[in-house]
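Work Package 3 (structural annotation) set out to generate three-dimensional models for the target panel prioritized at the project kickoff. During this period the team completed the workflow that converts sequence records into discrete structure tokens, so that structures can be stored uniformly alongside our sequence database. As a representative example, we reproduce one entry of 185 residues exactly as it appears in the project archive.
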Amino acid sequence: MVSTNQFKNGMHVEVDGTVFKLVEFQHVKPGKGGAFVRTMLKSVLSGKVVDRTFNAGTKVDTATVDKRGMSYLYREGDEFVFMDSDTYEQVHVPAGTVGDGAGYLLENTDVVVAVHEGTPLYVELPTSVELAVTQTDPGLQGDRSTGGTKPATLETGATIQVPLFVTTGEKVKVDTRDGRYLGRA
């Protein structure tokens, strides 16, 4: 249990049986009436953002979220198999929990998996990864001065936009948060 006076951004709390991450909070003391705390909570399972107001000093349950360093091993059906780096225990994580990050996962990639009471909540990938381009059309000579982009398929199957000078077989650096091309590797 934690009081609303002890809230910190990034804290995990349990409200109505659901685990939320505290995105933002604000203590409000109106001229008339009691103080209260406005919060913005993000559900770690669905990703929904909820605005919630608590009276000042109210006790809220904290959720114990264990973040473990793991390595991605392989995909089995619609589940991803990760291995705990300390205990060598294998954990099966559903594809919905991995989300869009699945397009940037190569075997033996080190990630952080957040677990609450044995249930994987989300997977944190490194901010950038290096992947090989398996297919892209050649850039046209006249288009080079415009600084345009073209689609490229990566070795994981994801498609991103790359500059015209990138060719098939090159390794590129990709931002895993938004799928942006960062440069050649």
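The two ends are 47 Å apart (CA to CA).
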